[in-house]
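Give me structure tokens for this 489-residue protein.
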Amino acid sequence: MSNAAMWTQAGKMTPYLLALDEGTTNAKAFAIAPDGSILSSGSAPVAVSYPRPGWVEQDADAVWNAQCAAIRECLDGVEGAPAGIAISNQRESVVAWDPATGEALAPMLGWQDSRTAEFCDWLRSPEREFAVASTTGLSLDPMFSAPKMRYLLDRVGTGAVRIGTVDSWLMGRLTAQATYVIEAGNASRTLLLDLATVDWSPAMCELFGIDRAGLPDVVPSNADFGTTAGLDFLPDGVPIVGVLGDSHAALFGHGCRTTAEGKATYGTGSSVMIPSGADRSIRTGVSTTLAWLTDAPMYGHEGNIVASGTAMDWVARLLGVKPGRELDELAATVPDSGGVSLVPAFTGLGAPWWDRQAVGIISGLTAGTSRGHVARAALEAVAHQIADVVEALDTSDLQVLHADGGATASRLLMQTQADLLGRDVVVSANAEVSALGAALMGFTRLGWELPAASQQEGRRYRPALDNDARAAARDQWRGALARSRATPA
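Here you go.
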């Protein structure tokens, strides 16, 4: 955008908020104007490593450097300092760092990492699982942060160390370690937060062997998170005004406030979330989470899928095509998967099964199976997993599922999703809805009026599959799941 475009008719520069979106594979930054429009942007890739089966790591300092590079690129397109900073971040991943230097003390354990599965199994008992679910709303699963925290603390020690999720890590680096807090919604993904009190649970901290006094303070989503200090690309004193986990930010950005509307984010994994207001009841197979905390808590019910974009990218590599369009085009060469099913349980299964012993399989192969059938099965695997979660959420009044994330560019995937759900799927017209959601949360802190909801609806997909065909497709998927989990169909 030209500098001239940054000026209003009155000759004044347009104020903006700097929205950071730190995801699993990319760090992004956006300059967002008070009307919600994007004035400038920047991005940088983030590497993911898989040193052993089930292990998923990232270099936390490299994540920070990527976010800095994205910010610099974004700021090159605007003039003046931002009025504030908002953050949308990947959740459940854990960083341990030196409180004086801010340097990471160990690799960041990614949210997909399952190395603590045995530890979770060692803790597991019917009584403990009930206590965990009733207190935190979550399952006793290695995806969540507390087992990862315990693992890192066992290796870096409990002396001069700070430990937290990615929002805590970024805020510490932005403020020269003056800030050591965690946003309440991110805290609700750790297995340590009491949903009733919205504070750390002494019982859960004791269960996982984590010193409650050593954890960051839990604060609202539009709290005073501190101000920038010691950065070469931003002046000191810019306030951090809004923080949300990426899935929560997408829910806020879509404008979902009732159980009639939910959202599905199609990223490396997938999150399906429906707001529930003050309802923090527990539902089998899915999580109860804190979507955000402002004047009052907004709870939500959510299912997390470990491998969605990861599954499609893996199949693309397997078939020798580029992820995205080329995989989509290959899948479109056949009318269906020809009986082939892919269950991408690379590190086990998340919601609603929570089975870390499940294994990835491709079933239904015949001599007539083509590359197109396998490509089609990859897209269907994503849609089936979303459908599994929607069924587990058990919300009869859900009318529309909003969709965001890179994979929504696939019209075939989105139509398949609507067909398997038997509900309309609406793809967001805003490709950066997580960043926008965090920015809008920041607006509430700055006192900026929230822009009117866009009247421009994204692409809408309506179910085109009849009930019998839908039931047959779902039965085929359930059979493949049973093989993956080594249980009777």
